[in-house]
Amino acid sequence: MAARRRVRNLGGLNAGNEEDGCTIEQFNQMHPPTFDGHGDPTLAEDWIQDIEEILHILNCTDKQKVLYSAFKLTGEAKRWWISERTIREADGRGVVSWLHFKQIFFDHFFPRSIRDAWAKDFADLVQGTMTVHQYAARYIELSRFALYLIPDEEKKTRTFEEGLNNHIYERVVALQIQNFLELVDKTTIVERGLKRSVELQEQRKGPTPLGFPSNENQGPWKRMKLVNNSGQRQV
C-alpha cells in the first residue's frame, strides 16, 4: 500500500530517536491514512497495518502510538474513541497501551463474530466454479482469519490442494508439491491444458457440411432417401 512505499522512502528521518520515540511532525510527514469507521471491516485491519508500519519505522513509544493513531481517526471512529477515552478517564484507568488499543479497536470495528464467520468460510472453501487463480485469491484472502488451520507451509499447501476440483486434483496430487506458490503455478498450468483439450475437441467436431447427416442416427449407413406417406420417394 501507499504507506508501505512511504516507509521505504523514509531514509534517515528517525535517526537518533531510539530513546525519545518520534515527533508528531515526523509522523505527519509520512502522510498516515485516516479511518472513519465506515465500510468493509477489513478496512479497519488495513488501517491498523498501515499505521503500525509507520509507527514502527519511526520508533514511536507505546504512548505515542496510541496518541498519534487516535489523532487520525475521523467521523464515527473519532466519536467512538472519544467515548472510550472518556469512560476510561472517568474510571481512573488512564491511557491504554498500544496492544490494548488495537484490541478494543478491532472489537468495535472488526468484531470477533465476523472474524469467526470468515474463518469458517475458509474452512469450507473449495474451488467449485472458480478458476484456479480466483480460488487462490479467495484462499489467501480468507486464510488470514484462520491461520491456526494452516500453521505451516505444508499444511497451507495440502489444504489448498484438497479443495481443488477432482479433475485438477487427480493430476497434481501425485506430484507431492510442498510449496503453496509452486502448487498454484502447477495447477494453473494443468487447468490451462485441460481447457485447451476441450477447445481442441470442440474444433475437431466442427460444423456439419451442408447436405450431410448431423448425428449418428443419420449416418452414411442410413438411406438418404425416405418414402413419404403417399409412397413417393423424397430426396
From TrEMBL:
Start and end residues of each stretch annotated as Disordered: 200-235
A Pfam family that this protein carries is Retrotrans_gag
Give start and end of each Retrotransposon gag domain.
Answer: 70-165
Q: Which domain of life is it from?
A: Eukaryota
Name listed for the protein in its UniProt record? Retrotransposon gag domain-containing protein
